[in-house]
Amino acid sequence: MLAACEGAQSTLDPAGPQARQVALIWWWMFGVAGVVLVGVSGLWIYASARKPRDVGSEEAIRINRRWVIGGGILLPTIAIVLLLIFGLPAGRSMLPLPLPGEQVLRIEVTGHQWWWEIRYPDGQVVTANQLVLPVGRPIDFHVTSADVIHSFWVPRLGGKVDMIPGRTNVIRLEAAQPGRFRGQCSEFCGRQHARMILPVEAVDAAEFDAWIAARRQLVFARLPDGEAGDLFRDRCGQCHRVAGLTDGDRAPDLTDLASRPTLGAGLLPNDGEHLRRWLREHQELKSGNAMPLHDDIPDATLERIAAWLETLEP
Ligand code: HEC
Ligand SMILES: [Cu+2]
Predict the structure, then answer these.
(1) How far apart are CA 139 and CA 105, in angstroms?
(2) Measured from the CB, is residue 289 less than 6 Å from ligand 1?
(3) Nearby residues for ligand 2 (ion, Cβ within 5 Å)
(4) From atom 30 of ligand 1, which residue's Cα is the shortest distance away?
(5) CA-to-CA distance for 314 and 2, rounded, in angstroms?
(6) For the domain bounded by 1-50+94-196, which CATH number is listed?
(7) Does the beta carbon of 238 lie inside 6 Å of ligand 1?
(8) Which ligand does the CA of 187 lie closest to?
(9) Which ligand sits nearest to residue 295's alpha carbon?
(10) Which atom of ligand 1 is nearest to the CA of 232?
């Protein structure tokens, strides 16, 4: 029952100003709802225990009316107004309003079945299935989808926003502390919706600048040796981009693959063993995903591709 209360994906462990407001509202709602529950339960026990009154009497009707007006109209009105007093500023803090003097970073996130495409337009850097952010800087996430509706949600940073094909929604979030968080698609988008995880890492500003700079310059000139190279260019490259070599745009950009934390959008840790497993068994590991089986590729060739993929990093 408490599975979502702890760890990298907890709304109750906020890591930024917007998330802190969300958590605060949650605690107030929990507290007030708890008081209401106890109060109503007390009244209910009292009402069932006491001797019935003559329901037709003038006095009984007056008391009934008082309960309906007080408990049924006044109390909910006050509760909703209070909720709005807290809720509107929290919602407003996630709107992309102009911020004088402060430099807002823009990051574009596109949802795909079932992976995340991330673009840093200022630096023309493209990556996938990892979100790296600078600490202490507001970020406008411009989100959209390439296929069905997804939803962008990093619970420790704040609210969620739908990713809708043909439309761009914007949400402003900020990380106040360095750390690793976890994002999760939160709109059912097909069979592997649960396996559409976004590893998030907040780093200090200098580290972030270095991270971007390293990727901005990243270009490769050498494909895998022999026929593995042709095969990667002709087949894999139709979907996957590797800066300088292929420019597919239907699948995760592989340019900085070796430096990413996971494979298959949070499915497997990214290391040599799991990379080889993914290349062979991706349809068993994440069935229905858009990468076709390639059983016809000999083991030695796939091994050469895997060894080369491990070199793709800044
Ligand atoms: C028809 C398009 C297509 C082709 C061809 C294709 N892939 Fe993929 N590949 C994908 C998609 C889509 C994903 C993401 C799957 C998911 O996580 O849902 C993917 C994921 C991957 C990943 C994991 C990336 C990550 O960030 O998690 C690797 C590595 C990879 N492919 C390598 C290859 C190699 C090597 C080839 C050629 C032998 C290849 N792919 C051919 C579509 C393709
Ligand atoms: Cu989804």
Answers:
(1) 5
(2) yes
(3) 150, 185, 189, 193, 196
(4) 279
(5) 40
(6) 2.60.40.420
(7) yes
(8) 2
(9) 1
(10) 37
Give the number of the ligand closest to the Cα of residue 114. Answer: 1
Q: What tokens appear for 149 in the block?
A: 């509706």
Tell which atom from ligand 1 comes closest to the C-alpha of 306: 35
CA distance 106 to 210: 17
The answer, yes or no, to whether any atom of ligand 1 lies below 6 A from the CB of 308, is no
Q: Does the pLDDT of residue 3 top 80, yes or no?
A: no
pTM: 0.89
Half-sphere exposure (Cβ direction) of 52: Cα atoms closer than 13 Å: 3
Is 191 a pocket residue for ligand 1 (Cβ < 6 Å)? Answer: no
Residue spans of alpha helices (H) in the chain: 17-49, 58-67, 75-92, 205-216, 227-231, 237-239, 272-285, 299-309
Summarize the chain as % helix, strand, coil (round to 5).
40, 20, 40
pLDDT in tens, 215-256: 988 888 889 988 999 999 999 999 999 999 999 999 999 999
Tell me the two tokens of residue 273: 């063993």
Question: 227-309, what's its fold?
Answer: Immunoglobulin-like (2.60.40)
In the chain, which residues fall in CATH 2.60.40.420? 1-50+94-196, 227-309
How many Å lie between the centroid of ligand 1 and the Cα of residue 148?
Answer: 19
For ligand 1, whether the C-beta of 279 sits within 6 Å is yes
pLDDT tens by residue, 62-78: 888 998 998 889 988 99
Q: Do residues 231 and 301 touch, judged by C-beta distance below 8 A? A: yes
Ligand 1: residue of 234, 240, 275, 277 to mutate (most ligand atoms within 8 A of CB) is 240
Do strands 197-203 and 131-134 pair parallel, antiparallel, or not at all (unpaired)?
parallel
User: For 265-297, how does the pLDDT look when each residue is reduced to its tens digit (9 = 90+)?
Assistant: 999 999 999 999 999 999 999 999 999 998 899
The rounded Å distance from CA 128 to ligand 2 centre is 16
C-alpha to C-alpha distance for 106 and 139, rounded to whole angstroms? 6
